[in-house]
């Protein structure tokens, strides 16, 4: 089977950028107190609800977020499409497991994880494939598990042919918060919090608002409102 073009391009782009991106990722987190506060709240919720707080960092890149979550007391594991990024993460964070993998096929059993973070990785998934990715997130999370998504807010797509002196072909899809929340609901998640951070004049993405969504997979036996796949936003009551 031929690999989807967006996977090939994204893998090649981040393979080329692995070393430089690792440095920028840590600096960005160090300079973002609100991001760290959200990650801390997420870690506290996961740890309170699950005795074995295994958390997946999906699109883990150089391992910055996985390492931060591990420092907050979670058992973190990273998965990334780029072998070069995984190699960098393994080198910089030898105590954490990192694997090469695709967001739409995570290679874990059903209900394997207590939490999942996709930190600016969903932005590389084309519109027609986002639902299957969110469905995969739902599959690998335990009942009562938490998900945290971070993404750039907007309705356009930024395409880069060059980054840090390297030729690449990378698409960055800006996403509407309501659209991402609707994907979560269709998969069976219950959104629990949303935040849009205003553009930061001192940051690298100064002109772009940043969106964050927290959601929970309902515990077994609880009722959740699910949007129909073909009803354009309709909903009915179902048991999970």
UniProtKB/TrEMBL annotation:
Keywords attached to this entry: Methyltransferase, Transferase
Biased composition (Gly residues): 230-240
Residue runs in coiled coils: none
GO annotation (BP), single: methylation
Pfam families xref list: Methyltransf_25 (PF13649)
EC number: 2.1.-.-
PANTHER family referenced in this protein's UniProt entry, alphabetically: METHYLTRANSFERASE
Gene3D superfamilies: Vaccinia Virus protein VP39 (3.40.50.150)
EC class name: transferase
Methyltransferase domain segment(s): 55-145
InterPro entries noted in UniProt: Methyltransf_25, Methyltransf_Superfamily, SAM-dependent_MTases_sf
Protein name per Swiss-Prot or TrEMBL: Class I SAM-dependent methyltransferase
GO molecular function, one term: methyltransferase activity
Renumbered residue ranges of the record's region Disordered: 217-240
Phylogenetic placement of the source organism: Bacteria, Bacillati, Actinomycetota, Actinomycetes, Geodermatophilales
């Amino acid at each position: 089977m031929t690999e989807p073009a967006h996977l090939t391009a994204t893998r090649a782009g981040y393979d080329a950028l692995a070393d430089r991106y690792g440095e920028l990722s840590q600096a960005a987190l160090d300079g973002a107190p609100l991001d760290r506060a959200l990650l801390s709240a997420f870690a506290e919720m996961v740890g309170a609800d699950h005795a074995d707080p295994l958390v997946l960092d999906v699109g883990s890149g150089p391992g910055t977020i996985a390492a931060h979550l591990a420092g907050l007391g979670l058992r973190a594991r990273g998965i990334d499409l780029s072998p070069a990024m995984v190699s960098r993460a393994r080198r910089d964070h030898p105590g954490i497991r990192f694997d090469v993998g695709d967001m739409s096929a995570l290679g874990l059993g059903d209900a394997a994880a207590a939490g999942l973070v996709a930190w600016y990785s969903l932005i590389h998934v084309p519109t027609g494939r986002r639902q299957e990715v969110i469905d995969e997130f739902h599959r690998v999370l335990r009942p009562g598990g938490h998900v945290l998504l971070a993404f750039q807010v907007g309705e356009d797509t930024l395409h880069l042919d060059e980054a840090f002196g390297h030729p690449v072909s990378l698409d960055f899809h800006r996403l509407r918060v309501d659209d991402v929340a609707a994907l979560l609901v269709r998969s069976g998640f219950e959104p629990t919090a949303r935040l849009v951070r205003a553009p930061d004049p001192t940051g690298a993405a100064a002109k772009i608002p940043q969106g964050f969504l927290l959601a929970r997979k309902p515990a077994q036996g609880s009722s959740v409102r699910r949007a129909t796949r073909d009803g354009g936003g309709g909903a009915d009551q179902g048991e999970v």
